[in-house]
Amino acid sequence: MLFNDGRLRVVALASMDDSATLLISGEIDRSNSDRLGAILAEVQVTTRPAGDAMVVDLAEVSFVDLSGLRVLALIPGVPREQAPRVLNMPPFVQRLLGLLGPDGDEGGRTG
Which class would CATH give 3-99? Predict the structure, then answer.
């Protein structure tokens, strides 16, 4: 287990291929989104040099606020082209991410 604050849990799963799979469950909100971003960035940095892929499984996520959406859309310090593959994204997260612009800014408006 990489993180558990009673509301959010992040577990690294063993994988048969060369990917690092993280199972995220619970609520991603302002109280834990910075820590989640740091975990995702750290795992991405450790898997990327080896050529491994990172997979994030959101099947057990029950709530995400705007700070959590930003972390999922833009992992701190990770270029978009190296973003992890996301599995089992709940429909409510898909809808909310659709409201964000290409840079994680609400509505994609720049001015």
Answer: alpha beta
